[in-house]
């Protein structure tokens, strides 16, 4: 597929929402580039191919989770996992990406060869191994560990008599009908699982150590449906996407400015949904709104399951698990025939790939972000880490557009290498890009995230509107990128 004398122009690692999005941007803007997409799994989809638990769905509306260039055509704003897979498949087909995809290729090493201005990439395959040479490397491998989710080490869990299931590795033959199921966790996965298991005939109890902020929204976007009746689909989609991103941006910033006011409003909405089933303790998080990702629920399905008596909440730290129940420190006992540990992800940046520069290993914790996707003093490498306070795909679209501009500039100058150069005597002041977010998986994996400055291009920003403006308007040749041709600076 690639040799030292005939390398790829671009190699993308990951065939999920990031990899497919990046590849589509390249095909749209730089169709002549020689490209390949590698994925460790047997099919495309990434998260949406891996997670198969009951009810799995988007945690953002599809008008913002969908790509800017590919209008979402479903009738629901919140889509099921299989619908998202179908959407990604259509995008791949429309942009002729399938012939570039190579599955069962797990990239383990990538070494930059300065003499030849090439990345040498090694992958394990079902038949052994494969090596690739590429001028530019893009990592779209997600942000969490596909092999090992977070294990909170719950006392006595191994003594439980029934099945213990994890959403990341859901057994397709499991029948929840008639079972008492305890779902441990209070995040988006747990809130999705509870009503889906209840609909399948289970009696479900969500066991939460710490409450989360919840917001019920209509499953169908009335604005989008109205816009599609009077505008062409692409215009209606673009307008809805702009509106929804603006509303989310406003709501996030208002939550950070006025957490008590927003928290009181959210609680009142929950009271209205639950009526006499409302429990103040169960819906009072010890942190402000949007310090963790908000749990959205279509048509309030989680609250509906509680109102109808098919689901319940138990709040408190787990003391231990015994043969047929979970015992909380407050004395409450949750009897169960099966336990689901929706206890969170394990952060894994850059696909756990061992990256080196001329044989010297790169510790990305010692490098600084550049333009939300590249890294100080690392040439011809970009990676996608989506927004924490908006749809992941917003970052994919913005970075995809910017990288196409960068690659076009390199072509115009006949440059082999582009490196964000940061001198050793810089005066950058570090700013935690995860500050203000208290999610456990972020805090546990903070040491894996590259450094970020308080301002300028050397940062990973979560300000959607500012990022969009900067990445579209600021020049590629900004004085920080160094371009060279076969080792010679331009």
The number of distinct β-strands equals: 24
The fraction of residues assigned to DSSP E strands is 15-25%
Output the CATH homologous superfamily of the largest domain: FAD/NAD(P)-binding domain
**Shape label:** globular
Low-confidence stretches: none
Tell me the number of helical segments per DSSP (H or I, 4 or more residues long).
Answer: 12
Question: How does this model look, in words?
Answer:
- This protein has 490 residues and is α/β, with parallel strands linked by helices.
- It has 2 domains: 8-146 and 347-489, FAD/NAD(P)-binding domain (3-Layer(bba) Sandwich), CATH 3.50.50.60; 157-222 and 251-341, FAD/NAD(P)-binding domain, CATH 3.50.50.60.
- Helices cover 29% and strands 22% of the residues.
- The chain has 12 helices and 24 strands.
- The strands form 6 sheets. Strands 1, 2, 3, 4, 5, 6, 17, 18 and 21 form a 9-stranded mixed β-sheet that branches. Strands 7-16-8-9-12 form a 5-stranded parallel β-sheet.
- Helix 1 links the parallel strand 1 (8-13) and strand 2.
- Helix 6 (222-230) runs antiparallel to helix 7 (233-257), helix 7 (233-257) crosses helix 8 and helix 10 (392-413) packs parallel to helix 12.
- The chain is globular.
- It starts with 7 loop residues before the first strand and ends with a strand.
- The relative contact order is 0.15.
